[in-house]
Amino acid sequence: MLNPTTARSQMIGGMIMATGAALLEAGVVDARLGRLANPNLAEYMLPVNADIPDIDVLFVNEPDPYSNPLGSRGIGEMSMTGTIAAIANAVHHATGERVRDLPILIRVQRTDLIGRTAMAPSAAMAATAR
């Protein structure tokens, strides 16, 4: 590892990006017009500091003689794969349903106070996207 401080920051950034990809980020397409319904950052949901708990990064500090002559490699994106899988597995363990689409949305129906059946907001967003 060439720079442990930078490597730690890269791993944390990748985990935050993965949390956004797994739970928030969705390009919603208007089926009538064929255009994005959330074309700018005002409507596109991204994780902010309040969404992310404290993250700790630990490394197994062993050299890799096979990577390249310097022994270096990029690590920021590597943390995304495990994080998205961990979030999907947590949803599976909590609900019993295996989720295979991102972002992970709540797909339930609820009855509002008037007695009509209405979709939960995240399910309505998913229905619009498809």
UniProtKB/TrEMBL annotation:
Stored Gene3D superfamilies: Aldehyde oxidase/xanthine dehydrogenase, molybdopterin binding domain (3.30.365.10)
Aldehyde oxidase/xanthine dehydrogenase second molybdopterin binding domain ranges (all copies): 1-53
A Pfam short name: MoCoBD_2
MF annotations from Gene Ontology: oxidoreductase activity
Source domain of life: Bacteria
PANTHER family: ALDEHYDE DEHYDROGENASE (PTHR47495), BLL3820 PROTEIN (PTHR47495:SF1)
Protein name according to UniProt: CO/xanthine dehydrogenase Mo-binding subunit
Species this chain originates from: Nonomuraea endophytica
Organism lineage string: Bacteria, Bacillati, Actinomycetota, Actinomycetes, Streptosporangiales
